[in-house]
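To start, one record:
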Amino acid sequence: MKKAENIIVGISIGDLNGIGGEIVLKTFEDNRILDFCTPVIFASAKTMVFLKTHFKSTINFNNINNIEQLAIGKVNVFNCWNEPVKIEFGKEDTKIGEFAIKSLQAATEALKNNTIDVLVTAPINKHNIQSETFNFPGHTDYLAKELEGESLMFMVNNTLRVGLLTDHVPVKDIVNHISEELIVKKINTVYKSLEKDFKIRRPKIAVLGINPHTGDNGVIGNEDDAILRPTLKKIKEEGKLVYGPYAADSFFGSNNYKNFDAIIASYHDQGLIPFKTLSFRQGVNYTAGLNKVRTSPDHGTAYEIAGKGQADENSFKEAIFTAIQIFKNRFDYEEITSNPLKKAPKKI
């Protein structure tokens, strides 16, 4: 990994009928952010000019057709398409979904080729991106296929980090997905990310139960006793500071979460409802476990306010700074771990 003085941040534009374009423009209206990174927006010059005009933005773009034309310290727009785009804010449109995927694919290719350092994704509509050639529930699943490693949805802010055993799984299927293998894999991914991405030595991890009250000794399901407890015991015996399972209903309200470096929830809403409640406008969705850094804001397309100039860019801005910091932390980690002391020569 090459450490850049000015980190190149690739940005996929997301659903153009949503708030993605607005939060991208608002983020870079404050040009002080260009002291920390050089953004590359994967879209088209015409599209960005339309958005700039609509939102009365004062940003000046550097339009490029290949990364070699990139201007450090400027807001670059990489042309992914030439055809006109009909933007109708607040409307779900499969054609707009196609442009979202073109942007994501071009940005991902640049990430794989190391022509950008990190990727920050604006929100997409998971429904209108589906096609015969693109059949993924969302960003995380697509990037898990394209990049190396074991992906994990990791919701983070300055004081709270929440990972998931299962993410986009229907509630009725959650128990069928949770196994000893999955628990071990997810905990190891979180543990490694805390060390490598967040510079935490000997991290402490809490795991939330599967059933209400962690099953109440089998009265409300036996999965916590049969699967979760014995697996956590094995992991703890390996030396990792992993605790639980904790009853999810009181864990956050009692402030117990403040005693841990990360919390692993058993399913999507169990973790994301308290996270988004406690991290209003400051949360970041980080895809941990991959060989590249990808973050996004912790919200969706927000069609109901799209085009009205009401979108809050703070979560997107936090996603950029989080990606930059993780990139730097990974560089420091690799620098420390890749140069072990050489073995002393044997005495003759």
About this structure: The two ends are 39 Å apart (CA to CA). Residues 314-337 form the longest helix (24 residues). The first strand starts at residue 7 and ends at 12. Residues 204 and 261 are 5 Å apart (CA to CA).
